[in-house]
Amino acid sequence: MKGLVLKSTGNNYKVKTESGNVYDCRIKGKLRLNGIRSTNPIAVGDYVLFDEENESAGIITDIADRKNYIIRKASNLSKESQIIAANIDMAYIVITVHSPQTLLQFVDRFLVTAEAYDIPCTILINKYDLFQSEKDQQTIQEWQGIYRLAGYEVLCISTKTGHNIEELRKRLAGKVSLFSGNSGVGKTSIIKTLTNNNDLKTSEISKSFHKGQHTTTFAEMYETADGGNIIDTPGVKAFGLLNMESEEISQYFPEIFKYSSDCQYYNCTHSHEPKCNVIKAVEEGKIALSRYKNYLTFMEDKNVKHREAQ
Ligand SMILES: Nc1nc2c(ncn2[C@@H]2O[C@H](COP(=O)(O)OP(=O)(O)OP(=O)(O)O)[C@@H](O)[C@H]2O)c(=O)[nH]1
Ligand SMILES: [Mg+2]
Ligand SMILES: [Zn+2]
Questions:
Q1: What is the per-residue pLDDT for 236?
Q2: What CATH number did the domain enclosing 170 receive?
Q3: Domain stop point among 164, 197, 232
Q4: Considering just the CA atoms, what is the radius of gyration of the chain in Å?
Q5: Which of 82, 76, 67 is nearest to 244 (CA)?
């Protein structure tokens, strides 16, 4: 039988067949896994073949080739990597100005990762109802400016007031969408709003630490009424960049990549070289300073790692 993996807990897989039956599956023996070293060989969004054991249980025997997948490393130096999901059309990074505060470096790490896997990404600023003060509005405008300049769509939403929820619903129709972001930003709340699924668990962020409580513990896929699939994921603290070479990093900042073709040196790192068109674009405000600074930080991280490895 063929099915779609809706949830993976590492040794148990919830698999849905085309006719809509759901099976609890396990893996037996070794599966050929394309050489990916990961803590979870099969992920949400994977298509698998399985043998039916009874009407609600099965054994996975094979996994179909993936269109794409996205991997997360817990930190830059961590060896363990985890496949977050497979066969994704679109990734959404959910962020908040405060309650909890999202750092732009976290956003940029996520965007670089999504670019590396060629997954288009949209930024959702959730809890818009909380950000009506002048200061918060300024931050939102600044963030919109930064990311629109880089070519990303930025949408302000609120599950409390319904702001832009219908806009978001349109974008999700007929697609597989992944939701990621820090714990407590409201990923599950958004999915709950869109699917009317009351089984979904959400919880308030902690009063003393102003952080989420890691309420969602496993990635899971949910269906919307208009044939979309949304993948909810556990909140993450950090995104380690994958094994990419420092030269690759500029390719994953679309706006830096765009201007780099006119740098004087073909191997320009856009950090100190004369006649660097990227530095010129930053000076002219065509590339946001915060993006450029994070680019330099990621390059530096990579170089530090290289030095340590030698
Ligand atoms: N004011 C306001 N609160 C919201 C909004 N959306 C979600 N929340 C609240 O934010 C808190 C955290 O929401 P969750 O949906 O559990 O957050 P999450 O991102 O899924 O968190 P993890 O599962 O831990 O990663 C809950 O108390 C929600 O009610 C919103 O638009 N406005
Ligand atoms: Mg959640
Ligand atoms: Zn340059």
A1: 87
A2: 3.40.50.300
A3: 232
A4: 21
A5: 76
Ligand nearest to the CA of 93: 1
- Under the banding of pLDDT at 50, 70 and 90, the label for residue 40 is low
191 Cα–ligand 1 center, Å: 10
Residues 6+ apart with CB under 8 A from 76: 240, 241, 301, 305
In which domain, by residue range, is 32 found? Answer: 2-63
CA nearest to 202, candidates 188, 191, 190: 188
* Count of positions (residues) in the chain: 310
Span from the CA of 257 to the centroid of ligand 1 (angstroms): 35
What pLDDT shows up at residue 310? 45
Distance from the alpha carbon of residue 102 to the mean position of ligand 1, in angstroms: 13
Q: Is the pLDDT of residue 193 over 70?
A: yes
* Residues 239, 86, 253: CA angle, nearest 5 degrees: 45
Per-residue pLDDT tens for 213-267? 889 999 999 999 889 999 999 998 877 776 788 789 999 999 999 999 999 999 9
pLDDT at position 206 is 87
Ligand 3 center from residue 282 Cα (angstroms) = 11
Question: Of all protein residues, whose CA lies closest to atom 12 belonging to ligand 1?
Answer: 184
Give tens-digit pLDDT for 123-147: 999 999 999 999 999 999 999 999 9
Residues within 6 Å of ligand 1 by CB: 126-127, 129-130, 158-160, 183-189, 202-205, 212-216, 234-235
78 inside domain: no
Instruction: Report how far ligand 3's centroid is from the alpha carbon of 216 (Å).
Output: 42
Model's pTM, two decimal places? Answer: 0.94
**Which residues sit with Cβ closer than 5 angstroms to ligand 3, an ion?**
263, 268, 270, 276, 278
